[in-house]
Amino acid sequence: MTFFIGMDIGSVSFKAVIIDDKGAIVKSYYTKNKGVISTVKEVMKNLKFDGVIDGVGITGSGKEFVNLLVGGDVLESEIMSHAVASIKQFRDVRTIFDIGGEDSKLIIVKNGEIENFMMNQACGGGTGSMIEAIANRMGIAIEDVGDLALKSKNEVSVPSKCGIFAQSAVVSKLNKGMSREDILAGVCKGLIGNFLTMLGKGKDLKPPFVFQGATAQNKALVVAFEKELDEKVFVPEMCSFMGAYGAALLVQENKPKKSNFKGFELAEAELQTKTIIGDGCSNMCEITFIFNNKDYVGTIGNRCQRCPLTHLKKISQSIKNEKSGEQAVDSKEVASSRIAAN
């Protein structure tokens, strides 16, 4: 039996799945993104599997960095990965909603193919991070937000176009004695209204509707979608893993002759980075050199080919000269975090 890995690395979380040759998920792992290197090692440790891995598909905002570390075979966009996963589970899907940690996506499907898509990456308003920030401000676990919101008896209006304004409004309403349940219901309703206004305005949104991503676990958001659309909204059982699942399906479809996967031993590898500002061109490239057990793996951030070549020998030597086990840069270095978040 053949097995494939799918990974989805975003600014907030890292999702990974292993599927078999029938497309069934046999193992999965979800964690917060604590810095790309440390998180990759954590994922490799917890995803370890006895079967032979025949391919690795990677998606998400940090896919290029993770590809160099893990050894990917197929790199695909978030839009394609989410759509493929949804179509696999809901063959007749027409509209897909995904509210991520830092962005939101709306995908329109026709006859099993992507017809159009819209993304909101300009503001944190209307994203999972906004809900989490509000929950933290109220001293509530993010997992409890949906259930509390559904207990609301007097829903209030909360502006959701801007995350900062939304948090300010929440504090104001709490100070006025309004209940947490009513405020959270207003937040959820406002978020969905904002999502549909920003991404769905002027679009012919048709059912079946599928809502995926970790925020789809929030039942109040599902109810808000259903009220706005006056239609049933379906939520996949593994809603948090749909991007990773789609990436796994795509590498399964485009199976390489030999996978580039570097193995689960990465969990114990000495992964290091060194970041510099290149002076080999006028671009002032911020280059991150990546090493595995002091062996050069690749670079990220360069906008030309000259800068990495100019500095590679010197950087490689500095890495080799360091004491064994001593990292050149902490695994949560700013460059890695910035790459994962962009």
Low-confidence stretches: 324-342
What is the element string, with H for helices and E for strands?
EEEHEHEHEEEHHHHEHEHEEEHH
Largest sheet: 5 strands, mixed
What class do helices, strands and sheet pairing give?
Answer: alpha/beta
What is the percentage of strand-forming residues? 15-25%
> Which strand order do you get reading across the main beta sheet?
3-2-1-4-5
Oligomer: single chain
CATH domain class of the largest domain: Alpha Beta
CATH superfamily of the largest domain: ATPase, nucleotide binding domain
Q: How far do the termini sit from each other?
A: 37 Å
Averaging pLDDT over every residue, what do you get?
86
Overall domain count: 3
CATH fold descriptor of the largest domain: Nucleotidyltransferase, domain 5
Per CATH, the architecture of the largest domain is 2-Layer Sandwich
The geometry reads as globular
Instruction: Give the tally of β-strands.
Output: 13
The percent of residues in helical segments reads 25-40%
SS element count, helices: 11
